[in-house]
Design goal:
The protein has 267 residues and is an alpha/beta fold. Helices cover 31% and strands 24% of the residues. Helix 8 packs across helix 9. The longest helix is centred in the C-terminal third of the chain and has 14 residues. It is globular and about 50 Å long. The two termini are 15 Å apart. The mean pLDDT is 97.
Amino acid sequence: MGLRFTILSSGSTGNATVVDNGEAKVLLDAGFSGKKLEQLLAERELTFADLDGVFITHEHSDHIKGLGAIARKHKLPVYANEKTWEEINRQCGEIAEENRRVMETGSAVDLGTLKVESFGISHDAAEPVAYNFYSGEEKLSVATDLGYLSGKVKESVKDADVLVLESNHDVGMLRMGSYPWNIKRRILSDIGHLSNDAAGEGLCELVGGQTKRVYLAHLSRNHNMTDLARLTVGNIMEDNGIFENLPVKLKDTYFDHPTEWDALEEE
């Protein structure tokens, strides 16, 4: 079996993804209670016993809310860089030393034939990262919580077969929304979140002949809508001739239910 994944939930209220290559299954982020994560896994006929580890992007609660509980109860190995571990220890309580894996930013871990590689991103966290997953010739890139698309990020996700990219907010909705201005300024900043427009413009550079699908992820429930994100990003890509030359498809993610399993080898 090749590389496949399911985004259990994605958005400002919680994030979790499962990546599987038949030899190893891993959870990316644990932004819900242990009970909720168990329910989401069950929707894809999985249990915690099926998992070989948890990889953490950063310490915000929508990415680690259930981490302490599931790591202790199910004795799961947890991978994060040292600065993120310092924050995890403060927020999640003690996690057994034998389950603690320090993974330096930019390094890679092999779990059988599944390779997991981290790379640094810009966000208001201790040392935030995104991840690439490799199995054979297949590559899945998952990059959310991005203040902006740096040259490093663009280089890291280059040649991905499938890309999960943040499309957090509509700038107009955010500016007109009820958040205090200091929070709006943080979201719009280079250490905040990627807007629909920024995602669309970035994808015009990122997608290539090998790119099959792009999932628009981490949508704000207050300042975005699924259809709006897809329409905005799609229009920018269409205006730049991307769909005329490349077979890439845009896909949705959801805050209230998982995506279907996506096998990278599928067209």
